[in-house]
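Wait, mind explaining this?

_____
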Amino acid sequence: MSRLATTGEVLQLIRSGEAVTRAEIGRVTGLSRPAVAHRVAELLQRGLIVEDAEGPSTGGRPPVRLRFNAAGGVVLVASLGAGRTQIAICDLAGEPLARTDLEIDVEEGPDVVLPLVMDTWEKLLDGRGGVVGVGLGVPATVEFAAGRTESARVMASWTGVVIPPIIASRFPVPVLVDNDVNVIAMGEHRMAYASELDDLLFVKVSTRIGAGVISGGDILRGALGAAGEIGHIPVRDGGGVLCRCGNLDCVDSVASGTAILRELRDKGRDVSSLADVTALVRAGDAETMAVVRQAGRRLGEVIATAVNLLNPAVVVLGGDVAEMFQPLVSGVREIVYRRSTQLATRSLRIEGSRLGPGAGITGCALMVIDRVLSPEAIDGTRAP
């Protein structure tokens, strides 16, 4: 480093493993021994690092190693979905310490849902202290800086709600809110792909369809937070299905879990849930498999356009429907490789989620951790 490193920057060196002894910190930063000692002492006092077992000796007394203390605080997280909400407490490495899944009708609105989520956090905390931040993923377009929901896909009663002050009135810590698929994409990328690639398209196929875009290693939100709203891109030959947004044949209305159930019922199948569809697929029911594969083709039509536009290294398919139905994934692959450009698909991979349902929890935690442990936050605040 060309200038004197701050305490926050020293913490980043320790967290990354780039410098884990006082001597290494001095060599990397150019700080004097007293300056290193001062910064390390502050981090120890704040509980953000601990002194580990003595490291290997190169002659003389072995150096004491410094290690990031993931137990130095907790993060409250919740990933709200149309049918299922995941609520957890995570440590400062993003690992869940306690978790529960709830069936919550998010369309009941924030006055009902947010108190229920906060009550659940209180129960999961069970007397634990050290809350440093809150992360929330919601199925809506979110103006990230303000934490305001601008357009809700499945919960219109939330539109225009500024969420952070509501939660901060009970948990007075930084509160970050983002679109549900954005946080899933962040979790999937950071925990499963960051060492391999910087450009990823995550597509969630569940009750509804949405996408999160990782470009150059960072989430792409767009000017108003609406990047990734592929669910409302129309497809050809969709049959004239009216979407809840008012347009016809949006991919959300013809290829989502809700659309698959509707189409099978129209064909006389007795299906009340995606589990019923799964049973028919596993039984080899030809008509059901054809419906699911056609949904995959329609989704593939939209993803092919996104591949040509964004040129991701990998398309990750997640959500209940993608995880349940291989015929849908096969339909996506068929159309994407046929309709995307040869260059964009030269090394493109299309694969299932590596993290599975836990990606939303992980993404919410990392979103908060990146903020509260940033050099700027560490240097501008006292112990969390």
In short: Residues 61 and 134 are 43 Å apart (CA to CA). The longest helix spans residues 286-310. The chain has three domains: 7-68, 74-184+360-380, 197-354. Residues 7-68 form a domain with the Arc Repressor Mutant, subunit A fold (CATH 1.10.10.10).
